Amino acid sequence: MPDDHELVLAYHERSKHRPGRYAASLGYLDWDSQPDPFRVYTGAEALALPRSGLSGGPGWGDLFCPGAVPAAPLGVAWIDALLFHSLALSAWKQQGASRWSLRVNPSSGNLHPTEAYLLAPAIDGLSPGPGLYHYSPLLHALERRAAVDPDTWAALCGGLPAPCLLLGLSTIAWREAWKYGERAFRYCQHDLGHAIAAVALAAALQGWRAVELPAPDDAALAALLGLRPGAGPEPELPETLLLLVPGDAVLDPAALHRWTPPAAALARFAALPMCGEANQLSATHEAWPVIDEVSRATRRPPGALAPVAASPAGCAPTTTSAPGDPAAAALIRGRRSAVAMDGRTGITRAGFYDMLLRTCPQGLPQSTIAGPARVDLAIFVHRVEGLDPGLYLLLRDPERRDLWRAAADPAFAWTRADGCPDALDLSLLRAGDGRMSAAAIACGQAIAADGCFALAMLADLRDLPGAPWLYRRLFWETGAIGQTLYLEAEALGIAATGIGCFFDDRMHAMLGLQGRALQSLYHFTVGGRVDDERLQTRDAYFHLAGVATGPQST
Is the peptide bond before 163 cis (omega within 30 degrees of 0)? Predict the structure, then answer.
């Protein structure tokens, strides 16, 4: 019987797109079984948040300068701002009789498999005691799943800084599988990365930090979040736990890396009576056993720790961006995925390098994810002023240079990019117009050719044999990079979009890669947006106009 590592690699191969043979899906959209995009716990008390967000606030550049944003006090307004700028609705789009919501955090196909749960102490205006809550983006409300007694909360938070909150993220794979079939597991993990990055940046807006706690295994995390994972067509599985603390909190990275809920506190959480029943998302379902299999093979067992990063998280390399401009809150809530690029807009070399500097692993939001950086960027430069078009490689960890030199096409030039900052390890591999190649690799999508540049995120899979659960985290890293590129593009007045449909092995062939150590996991493009003038936009919470904030039943 194959071990979990072999199962993961088999899934990865099976879920690749190839010309003439895409990863298995229904091949059509069964609208009768379309999943509800919103989880609701019927019978749970819903505590509506103010929806006030932040007025003005720090500039985009300020988020990346430690100490530039003072820590806001913990309260309802803080929770409101955190969720309003990370996981909330951002707008509604309408065309004819069809209407659909958009969210602050991007998602493949706008299907949003990610759910969020908040573990919070007693907070004035929210609850006189600690509690476990599910976040409802539709209502911008916290659904109270359980009251937690103070002793249990104190036991849980032993060894953690005070004040603090815990935010857990989970995945409902069916939401993506409904449309994308077997490849959906990949997209779910991309979206986890998007969500982690969104939370980290929203915390930075208020002078707080988000730090992943990697030690709790999946069973422990399920207990903390009130999830009772079981069989069935709509399983909701725990993914990760984020610690939220003021930016000036003194943290011991090694201790946090090892932190796990005390056994007594965990037992109490597992026994908590939960309020509310989760809604069923679809009336009918299509089974995707391969997703169930890879989900099981990538579950993290007790005692499995993510490797510690070689260098501690800190400040990303300085860019030329001016702190204070533009306003970060408006930028975050105004982000949109481009559906087409104009094929004309360019970007300055300085702007391009600034974007790449933001993706450095030691800075926000990438540093939120525990462990070393395992993802590098192969970049098709199309229209970057002062930079020759061609295929480039950004090594986010220079220690992988030998791996790449040995695995890639021996004819590559490996010439340092013109004017490249010292903090970037960016090499020109091959000069020339790569637009047709970029589009062909992206399943023929013109958007990959029509931007300023397109890129492929390639991950180092060499650690998987001993830790197959790291497979999920590779996608989280790509999602965090993607969210950074989205917002950097918006800051420059252009746009970006993630590309999940690409021919994996055609990309590998373009790079001359042999073997399976380096695999392409996510593609992206940045350029001048083309808007669909047929679409109307409505306010994110117009459907709640006149609805007062405060507790109500859902």
Answer: yes
Lookup: tokens for 183: 């490849």
Q: What pLDDT, on the 0 to 100 scale, is given for residue 320?
A: 63
Q: Which domain holds residue 438?
A: 328-527
Q: How high is the pLDDT of residue 317?
A: 63
Report yes or no on whether pTM surpasses 0.90.
yes
Q: Are residues 300 and 332 in the same domain?
A: no
Do 297 and 344 reside in the same domain of the chain? no
- Whole-angstrom CA distances from 543 to 90, 99, 175, 538 are 13, 12, 23, 10
Position 309 scores a pLDDT of 59
Helix, strand counts (H, E) of the chain:
16, 22
Is the same domain home to 172 and 235? yes
Strand partners, 21: 18
Report the distance separating Cα 478 and Cα 250, nearest Å. 28
Residue keyed to tokens 């047929």:
534
CA end-to-end span of the chain: 46
pLDDT of residue 553: 47
Can you tell me the mean pLDDT for 298-302? Answer: 88
Q: Judge whether 392 and 427 are in contact, CB under 8 Å.
A: yes
Average pLDDT over residues 33-52: 94
Which residue pairs, CB below 8 angstroms and at least 24 apart, start in 110-113?
A: 111/35, 111/37, 111/175, 111/176, 111/178, 111/179, 111/187, 112/37, 112/137, 112/175, 112/191, 113/171, 113/172, 113/173, 113/174, 113/175, 113/176, 113/187, 113/188, 113/191
| Pairwise CA distance, residues 41 & 140, whole Å | 14
For the chain, the domain total comes to 2
pLDDT tens-digit profile of 108-117? Answer: 999 999 999 9
Answer whether 367's CB lies under 8 Å from 211's CB.
no
Asked, for residue 532, whether it belongs to a domain, the answer is no
Q: Show Cβ contacts of residue 306 under 8 Å, excluding neighbours closer than 6 positions.
A: 214, 257, 370, 371, 470, 473
Residues 23, 115 within the same domain: yes
* CATH number assigned to the domain comprising residue 196: 3.40.109.10
Q: Tell whether the model's pLDDT for residue 552 goes beyond 60.
A: no
Q: For the CA atoms of the chain, what is the radius of gyration?
A: 22
